[in-house]
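Render this sequence as a predicted structure.
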Amino acid sequence: MSEPIAEVVDLARPPVHRSTVVAAGRERTFRVFVDRLAEWWPLDPFSLGGSDRIASVTVDRRVGGTVTEHWHDGSSHDWGTLLAWDPPAGLVMTWNVTGTPTEVELRFVELDAGGTRVDLEHRGWERLSLEELRAACALPGGYSGGAFERGWATILGAFADALREDAP
């Protein structure tokens, strides 16, 4: 009797939501996020190759463009494809690192008091099998174990730190 209940619980797959506030205008925040991705993104463990292999991370700035890590050996590996491109307001992309692609949306909201709030929503978990939901990603536990909640908090924290260190 408990197995059917577990299956029903597994069907509840809410999006991951994370936000951070940075002390920079929206345009600069968006530009640093996109243009300097490999500089601030914690490549260890949040990449396919790790910092020793990665030469750069690029964003092909158009709908249908890719976010790609380029390795020193000349190979490249896509993180995802841009589904929406609206600088400096935001972007939406597939997130291919999950096996079956999910979606990540980033919104950059200028605050009246100054600064920018960066809102992230990682959705589409219903597309993944139970095995994919439980699989370890950069952090142990997969989606089911909260790894994406922890991971995105770490990534946005690194981004906020980079903007703080790079303040004009």
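Summary. Helices lie at 2-11, 26-35, 37-40, 130-134, 147-165. The beta strands are 16-22, 54-59, 66-71, 76-86, 90-95, 102-110, 116-123.
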